Amino acid sequence: DQQVKQNSPSLSVQEGRISILNCDYTNSMFDYFLWYKKYPAEGPTFLISISSIKDKNEDGRFTVFLNKSAKHLSLHIVPSQPGDSAVYFCAASAWPGTASKLTFGTGTRLQVTL
Amino acid sequence: GAVVSQHPSRVICKSGTSVKIECRSLDFQATTMFWYRQFPKQSLMLMATSNEGSKATYEQGVEKDKFLINHASLTLSTLTVTSAHPEDSSFYICSARDRERGHQETQYFGPGTRLLVL
User: What is the pLDDT of residues A7-40, one digit of tens each?
Assistant: First the structure.
């Protein structure tokens, strides 16, 4: 049972335009969400996160939106740059505490073209 | 900040041998570390949660006798793949939480270890 889903395996965006990556979840207990960026043969790099008490969090070119009623979150990258080309994973955490785990989506490969 | 290292970055071994992978938190203490495995073009699969000073908690379907985890200090966790076989070939990634920095649920990942068993 895939509790965190990224339905778009790939996305191509022109440099300078907005990239929108989507993520849906099914577990209503999730209350903290994260986005990671991953290059091939490297570990994921933390980008941005959002707590369920918020609906938006912004950090530079990255903004994450959370719609709890729809169980949906999205990552906006504006403007997109060629260096943003990577696989993006969303992740969710259910129980804040000492032993909570992250559940990852399947990833979306973003290609930013010139 | 929140740097996690892994060693080795890649290893090739013969079938039947054991391989140890180290995960270190370089600038923070981590009471909890996590070990993941990633197959090509797939998501990260959590294998186990490593707790300093206590036994690791393994996910369903992960053989604890095959994947030995030791978290002997607040900055070091090791994963030993015992009697490795070709099907154990994969990309192994560790992560750690830095309770002093950012949100307590954020995990910071190491660069990963590519294991190839011949």
Answer: 999 999 999 999 999 999 999 989 899 999 999 8
Chain B residues in contact with A101 (beta carbon < 8 A): 34, 46, 49
Among left, alpha and beta (phi > 0; psi -120 to 50; other), residue B112 is left
Which pLDDT belongs to residue B1? 66
Tens of pLDDT, residue by residue over B50-92, are 888 888 999 999 999 999 999 888 899 999 999 999 999 999 9
Contact A41 B91 (CB under 8 A): yes
**Both tokens assigned to A108:** 């979306």
Residue identified by tokens 């990833």 is A107
Handedness of CA B106, B110, B112, B113 (dihedral sign): negative
Output the six-digit token pair for B104.
């307590």
Is A22:A6 a contact under the CB 8 Å cutoff? yes
The dihedral formed by the CA atoms of A28, A30, A32 and A36, expressed in degrees to the nearest 10: -110
Q: How many CB pairs under 8 A join A and B?
A: 58
B106 touches chain A (CB under 8 A): yes
